[in-house]
């Protein structure tokens, strides 16, 4: 049990179970990897199957591809059996889109690298394509498959299939009887099935159509996501689901169960190491937990947590330079962009999270860092009814000893209504930090740090210092100027400027162009400018010295982010086609840089992350990236960034930042780095089906493959290629939409394989999410998503250049 | 209580007294014993009543033995096929006479209260476990039982007993331990101590509520800590432990094949265990808990395992018969779950003239006068009462015995009831609003105990079916009586008559026993007129129609016959319906018909009811076939006459009133319906064990 395998996009990652570190990345598949299994005859080898129709055999210790078997069908799952000498089992769909078969494939013995394996024999028809719905039992004597409301068991020796059906949605009581997963007892004739209503049924005597019987185990209140028997004796059964609790049923009795609670997120897959000493669970929040036999979590491999709602936006922790955003419910996650690793989670709400539909949870809505990361302010709210708003503001102080944030002040109901904005004054000249909150109740409040010492201890705390309002308008935004001397607060359509020393209203600006959506001061040389965007799609720039409107532009800005290290301001506008990026300096209305169509989806948040070492791009187009990198988050929770070619060389091989290179000379060298996060999708199967519908189409476009397979130096000129690309896009556009293609493999499961011996390894795939790419090696193929992105860029860039 | 017109289609309109003040609560079930030979089930209740259900005859309760206050039954078992024994806390072993429906004899075991009893597999020996820790062996002789010897005395009471199928060993469950005895020597071979721990907490005691000895030497025990444990009797070691409940597991029953058993818990759950093979190609088998059944709300005190069904009963008074689907050959209505709550006999009689209802309870009678109204209303309206129902009389029995039967005369001036040893007759005098009660003393010696009592329509004659099989006719005079005649039972039979019916003109008396046919007597000539041919299923209700003197007989398989007494043959209508057959839904009803009556003005109508429906059979209309809708829920006004005529059939049923314990016609336009909602019964039961329910 030294290694754990997980599938991430087109790769298989090999992690060490002891250190959590990624040891190898097995790359070579050209499409999503859908299944991995240890070679039952050689425990140092690993089989993997992929949508690209190949099964590859790896030496995972050295990270070498040994063999490739070309099957020619899309493979949805892979199973290996000890007793099956030279064949493996795969799930394919041959005829119709949604009809899946389990087939056994003979893998011919040959010394060549690439072998055709076309000998397919069908075992079961009309099955669910999820590998969770297939299980082999009793050393390969039978295979159990579940789908909808029935369980089919195929006996290899007798060549018969028994089918057991549960009463379906006829009456309400059995409405959620659907099977969700299946597992077979390693020693006994016993099949465990998980159901949508949270029940686990243990089937016995299933070789007799009449005398079959089952036992119910019911603890889960929601769908059972995965089941696994302990390997050696099968005495305990593990189950998990949305409750985020791993349940161990001992001796398959209802009363004898153990729990490992608070795992943080829905358990998607459960896997048991071949030696039986480790369990592992993968979670919907992009996490793998390695658990000891005695139900103690021993290691956590955590990626960027996906959350359905990012309220806090993207922030950068000034200390760690980590990206900070909503993580687990009620938590702030600190995510290191350099290492693709979660640094830590800060529990803000500090309450047990109860996972249930229809429960109105406390939500972490706002957060802000102040004073170089010394202070963190968070706002949480819960609104059950229109009139019952629960609001809490917490202020956290950074503790140098513990290297973490400690709760300092808790303010109940800081405002009467929702807090719309929160900002610290970061200017150096103020000794005491100042926090301003703006709220829908028409006030903005200034909070200052005061001495809260008593005879017992020295302490500091926050108190309200000033309450400001303007004509009972709702305060929508607030921000401090760079030197901290001015505070701008927007009240619906009006921007007010306050002196931060005396809290006097200095000036108001009103453009009567709709409510102010964003507000920010210019920086450095442009600090005399104040920028605002309105709901009606106007971007305004006021000169604070002349108190006049300097310029305005018609732009429906969704995101406006100032670069902390330069004068630049990035604005992302939303149009019907997609989102466009504009980078400009407030001093001049002409943008420095325009990038059209950065994403077809709505961009929700963006942030500049300062670089550790400034770059020196001379090209005018991306000088703005010299000091900071711009990251943005789309609605489907893809985190994207702009990057240039040069950083690529700095990346260590273990880094997950993989760059896409556009090989054509006429287009700017921008790369997308994708760190995609799939929207939480309860109906995994549906999503997968939709994925299956969509993906074949992209594969069949000859233009793309032609382009991508041809070395760059023999390619024809870009203009020729471009038209081809455009036409290929036109064809495919009718049938697919970007959003519908989950760009990463999120729905594969770990299937522990292998029985053999001392060097026990086990495998698990998680929904880890890397959008992948390749450097210069054009033999590798771009993943579907990149292809699309690149095509998009190509098209856009080209037109932009010609426009110049 | 309330009066309102009855809406069902085509029945004509009735005012219905919907009575819900019959405060009847059945007693909880204490023991059940299944007899495989005759497919009968004996059920004993906490008040000492023992009931016999015939599972082949549509689960009809065909016999019952009235309870006795001091006779709390703790154990019940069948021996040699037809003999039924019970033992209880009064320390007596009782054998019941299933023909004469009385107690054959009672023998004191001299060991204090008896907690358990078991018949040896060959049926010749009876074991009882007593309070003082003794296990006593009795020899069963053809007409009695004979004490044989004591086994080694144990420290505490023996709560459960089980024979090894070979008859060589027994297992006895006591408090905290199980003993295995050798029958020959009577000495304890093993003593298996049971863990007192309960969910980590040490309880004071662990009571072994039940044991079962299997032929392979395994002893299964159920105990108060919620465990089902498997012991190896050869070594005296624990083999397997199933913790199945947070409360006591109170009962266990093993199937004859020893491939499945059932246990009942105090939480009301019944668990089924099955012996399944570990893998398909090995002979190794293991016991696996399979399905839980939650049909009870309270303690399941007793379970039984018939070859095709699991039977359970408990404090919540229901008897539940749950067929095992895998043992059922054809999935038909017989394979459905049965829940029996109410006795299959009448507990209510009614005086039509004075609008009085007599309710029979275990130890008292209640007499109520129905309320009245002057209001009128539309079909379906609830009418307000101008005068509330009156509780006129509360008549408590003397002595510890339960009432067997009771009756009020149609004129309302006589009440008769009987216990096992005494017969009581009262005369009621009404003076304005005052009621005076006068007991008729000096009952003749032969009138000791009655199984059924009936007054003639004109209240001048009293018919009493005694448990010796004889029928007595008594003429009632003002304040006194005169014995007219006794019909002696047919020579050679001792079967008791349980059902009586008299013709309204007073000429004919029909009487039926539990199995043989219905006898019809001519009262004028005081002789047996004829015997209706015997039918396979027991009679559940009898009545003689006015004018035509047709005898209507309902059987437990839901068949209804009409027999013309003057012609001594089945009527034409009865032959027609037998030829065509009843509607399948009619035959699938759960509960037997308990009462039949007639409309005085409509000779073609027969009114009958069971616990869940009330039906008027209109003999003039065509019979329904299996394609027609038997239950017609549509009110008649919504349909045109043509459709109504086309869809009309002889069975007009109403399911508004349920559970319906009694329904009769007071006059041409008034019905009285006595309901006993199940919720009211549950409300009067002790609170069940509180269980945490998820999401509450």
TrEMBL record, chain A:
Ribosome biogenesis factor. Part of the small subunit (SSU) processome, first precursor of the small eukaryotic ribosomal subunit. During the assembly of the SSU processome in the nucleolus, many ribosome biogenesis factors, an RNA chaperone and ribosomal proteins associate with the nascent pre-rRNA and work in concert to generate RNA folding, modifications, rearrangements and cleavage as well as targeted degradation of pre-ribosomal RNA by the RNA exosome. Involved in nucleolar processing of pre-18S ribosomal RNA. Required for optimal pre-ribosomal RNA transcription by RNA polymerase I. One of its GO terms (cellular component) is small-subunit processome. Residues 314-637 form the WD repeat-containing protein 75 second beta-propeller domain. One of its GO terms (biological process) is positive regulation of transcription by RNA polymerase I. Component of the proposed t-UTP subcomplex of the ribosomal small subunit (SSU) processome. SSU processome is composed of more than 70 proteins and the RNA chaperone small nucleolar RNA (snoRNA) U3. Keywords: Isopeptide bond, Nucleus, Phosphoprotein, Repeat, Ribosome biogenesis, rRNA processing, Transcription, Transcription regulation, Ubl conjugation, WD repeat. This is WD repeat-containing protein 75. GO terms for molecular function: RNA binding. WD repeats lie at residues 26-68. Residues 736-776 are annotated as: Disordered. It holds the Pfam family Beta-prop_WDR75_2nd. InterPro entries: Beta-prop_WDR75_2nd, WD40/YVTN_repeat-like_dom_sf, WD40_repeat_dom_sf, WD40_rpt, WDR75.
Automatic annotation (TrEMBL), chain B:
It comes from Crocuta crocuta (Spotted hyena). This is U3 small nucleolar RNA-associated protein 4 homolog. The keyword rRNA processing applies. Signal peptide: none annotated. Keywords: Chromosome, Isopeptide bond, Nucleus, Phosphoprotein, Repeat, Ribosome biogenesis, rRNA processing, Transcription, Transcription regulation, Ubl conjugation, WD repeat. The keyword Protease does not apply. The gene is Utp4. Ribosome biogenesis factor. Involved in nucleolar processing of pre-18S ribosomal RNA. Part of the small subunit (SSU) processome, first precursor of the small eukaryotic ribosomal subunit. During the assembly of the SSU processome in the nucleolus, many ribosome biogenesis factors, an RNA chaperone and ribosomal proteins associate with the nascent pre-rRNA and work in concert to generate RNA folding, modifications, rearrangements and cleavage as well as targeted d Involved in SSU pre-rRNA processing at sites A', A0, 1 and 2b. Interacts with HIVEP1 Interacts with NOL11. Part of the small subunit (SSU) processome, composed of more than 70 proteins and the RNA chaperone small nucleolar RNA (snoRNA) U3. May be a component of the proposed t-UTP subcomplex of the ribosomal small subunit (SSU) processome containing at least UTP4, WDR43, HEATR1, UTP15, WDR75. GO terms for biological process: maturation of SSU-rRNA from tricistronic rRNA transcript (SSU-rRNA, 5.8S rRNA, LSU-rRNA).
